[in-house]
Amino acid sequence: MNPVTFWAVIAVLVWAVVGINGQNHLRIRKSWYSLTPGERATFARGVRVMKSLPPTHPNSWYYQANIHGTRSNANVLGWRTCQHGSWFFFPWHRMYLYYFERIMRKATGDPNFNMPYWVSSGDNSIPAEFRFPATPGNPLFTPDRCPLVNAGQHLPPVQTSYERAYRQNLFTAPENSSIPSFGGEMSRIPTHSGARAGSLELGPHNYVHDYIGGPGRGLMSDPNTAAQDPIFWVHHCNVDRIWEGWLHVNRRHQNPVDGTWGRRTFVFFDEFAKPVYLTADQVVNTAAGLGYAYESIPPIDGAHIGAPLNSAQRTFNELRSQQGLIRYKRQGHGYESGAEASHNYHHRVLSAYHQRGVLNGYRHTFDMEHQNDPYHGHEIEGKRNRCLQLHGVTYTRGSIYDVYVNLPADVPNPHPGLPYYVGSLAPFSQGRERIGANGQMEVHGAFLKFDVSRFTNHFGWRKYGQGSGYRGKRQAGPEVGPSRSPQLTMIMGSCSSSGDGGGGGPQPFMAFREMRVQEIVRRRGP
């Protein structure tokens, strides 16, 4: 190592030891269920103090919630700056949560306060302290949730699982490529309500928001109001923890090192109500840069495709990133990652439904038509992904529909444990709001997608993979012949639904202009 590089590494290590907040010891964020009764009471006290501050105070509950989103048109520093639907989703929310934690530490008067996380996966209900007592005197309670959630209903375990997101080896993908990734597609500018989210955001993140808020006017199902609900903060602390877990589970899992991502600046407020500015490069290392670690990192069975990075390897990668020794390059469709260099992207539609579809009841079925033979085109070698895409989506807040392929009509009570289930549609931040024809607030112009590469059997493509370059592990599915066109069934999955689509209150609504299964081949060379 030459002297210049040596001292650059030393400088970064010195900065890392102290961190942004100047501390020289590691704080541990614990699960809500690991907190003592006194620690839970401290969290509630901090929320109460923040709610008591004037709304114009940057440390108040109202002001901090409006940083994430608000319907106010006021031009206030930091408001409406949350990042969704792009690769900025994870770093922005980490910064947001970090300074909220510092504000809470001052509000509680407890120098040992650390943010807790709530594990929403695994058939959990929201913690009792957020539901009882159900009175205005409880700072953690709000009636603006799905009533069933406030009554203790458990969130479905399959839809809130992060397993599918953990299996994505790429953090990001080129703009508008529709290639599945963990953290969302690249964007040259901040995206408050982008349409190209990663698997974790599209999956359990959105699902938890929509399910807790429910259809209608629940706080959590609307990005303009979500941070007003105290459960938002412990949910997002868990999302941040899952990001850390993804980095540990496989040596191929790495954060972006492109300057467009790493040097993008966002504004927040510290515990002294002073504006502060952070970049993604400053927050990629939670221990060295921000001074915290998690009580446990979420594992996932079967996701350890490669050996996890040890601390020395991760530190070396982060140092190289901070010195700018690894760069993304611009080529073809945009930037390219170092792990997926020199790729071209070939797209083709395999199956499609070229009509408007409306989801306003418990169960809807759509017959798709094959557009291209999945057994031909093998001359295009490369890694293949298949995505179910819905274009021109309109929806009401809190709407969720579970998607099944070739589900027999005689199955009485479909559930995600069946082999026909391939994913859920749970839009949260995509699209633009406007009043619909019936006078109800609707969100228009959304684009929804999720990866179905592991479910090739479900779509009638049993032989796919023979000489095709497909490298993924196929999910065992229903025995359907290759000549059969897939039939997609959408089952209402929102909190308000019951076995017959009832449950009272506003009902989910979703519509789309077109639905298709698109294949994307990443191939090397010109």
Write up what this structure looks like.
By secondary structure, this protein is an alpha+beta fold. The protein folds into two domains: 3-334, Di-copper center containing domain from catechol oxidase (di-copper center containing domain from catechol oxidase), CATH 1.10.1280; 342-524, Jelly Rolls (Sandwich), CATH 2.60.120. Helices cover 24% and strands 19% of the residues. The protein has helices at residues 3-18, 37-52, 61-68, 89-108, 147-150, 163-166, 199-213, 231-249, 259-262, 286-290, 311-323, and strands at 27-29, 265-269, 275-279, 292-294, 329-331, 334-336, 343-353, 357-359, 363-367, 369-370, 383-395, 401-405, 421-425, 432-435, 441-451, 487-492, 510-512, 514-524. Strands 7, 8, 10, 11, 14, 15, 17 and 18 form an eight-stranded antiparallel beta sheet that branches. Strands 9-16-12-13 form a four-stranded antiparallel beta sheet. It has a two-stranded parallel sheet with strand order 1-4. A hairpin with a 2-residue loop joins strand 5 (329-331) and strand 6. The two termini are 36 Å apart. Residues 1-17, 301-342, 462-476, 479-483 and 498-503 have low confidence and may be disordered.
CATH class of the largest domain: Mainly Alpha
Q: What assembly state would you assign to the polypeptide chains in this entry?
A: single chain
Query: Can you tell me the overall shape?
Result: globular
* Estimated share of beta-strand residues: 15-25%
Q: What is the rounded Rg? A: 23 Å
Described by strand count, sense and barrel closure, the largest sheet is: 8 strands, antiparallel
Fold-level CATH name of the largest domain: di-copper center containing domain from catechol oxidase
Task: Provide a count of the helices.
Answer: 11
The CATH superfamily label of the largest domain reads Di-copper center containing domain from catechol oxidase
Order of helices and strands: HEHHHHHHHHEEHEHEEEEEEEEEEEEEE
Low-confidence regions:
1-17, 301-342, 462-476, 479-483, 498-503
SS-based structural class? alpha+beta
